[in-house]
Phosphoserine aminotransferase
Amino acid sequence: MTQRAYNFAAGPATLPETVLEQVQREMMALPGPKASILEISHRSPTFKEIIEAAEKNIRTLLGISDDYSVLFLQGGGRLLFSMIPMNLLTESQPSADYILTGSWGKAAIKEAKKLGSMNVAWDGADDKYTYTPSDTDLKLDPNAAYVHYTCNETIEGVQFAAEPQAGQVPLVCDASSDFMHKPLPIDRYGMIYACAQKNMGPAGVSIVVVRKNLLERSSDELGSYLDFKLHADQGSLMNTAPTFAIYVVRLVTDWLLNDIGGLDKMYSINQAKAKMLYDTIDSSNGFYDGHARKDSRSLMNVSFRLPSEELTTQFIDQADAADLTALAGHRSVGGVRASIYNAMPVAGVEALRDFMIDFRDKHAK
């Protein structure tokens, strides 16, 4: 078998090797139906068990009560950027607050503005999105339909250490790039949504955790697929579900529960991995320059620059040759980005750290 590289891509991203091995074993035929997950009906007893197990695992890991629905949807974050205002804005609450800490927050409000008048509660653009705001920085409207924020910005590598305080207004969170990286006080949220392809599985499914009383805001005028309540009422099976993606989500959540031992342990591992890279940046005498302010650094996406574009290109090319792949920063920011999601093994981060130290020693003046 081809030797696997350490894949630092921002998404689709690395998956646990044990999960990939199980997918490989079961690809031709699942136990029971003796057919591939790619072939079985989304309404079959086998898939019913898979989607119910995936939901149960998510509820167990995050401590989600029956006050919330867990949905498995298609369309990705881009569609959810529109579905959220479609479902949560009302005639009496036609506006929402958006906290902008990076590129994905900007993308979310761009879509929301097509559907209503949105209030920018805070925007970090003047400081090039290098940090997250404190609660006192926020200009929130107490009559807003909801407060939306992106808890981890993959491009800039900034992350909230704790959720912002929204008072009585429902808090809506795009957790696409750090979902399940640590425990959450789920009851503080009205809705959390996440595309699977960074921390939870392959591309093709998004997970939405939504408080049931918010589902009552939906309008009969919405197209059926755009209505969260209809998806909840039909158990995420309004149309043909992305069966393979949900199957892998089930396996990844099994891994989090059984192999890792839950989100407290996952969080400790993630903190240790990120510390290795940030310590290397901080001890480089300026050779590596981190994008994010220290108090807002992401545990999932470590973004940094080198002294020149020439050195950056050499770094990325030589790392790739050493099987440390997909380290180029996003085109809008440049530099280097190491995405170290849950499934990135400690050994992969150690290998990158050692490469960074060696590269600095060879090229620092």
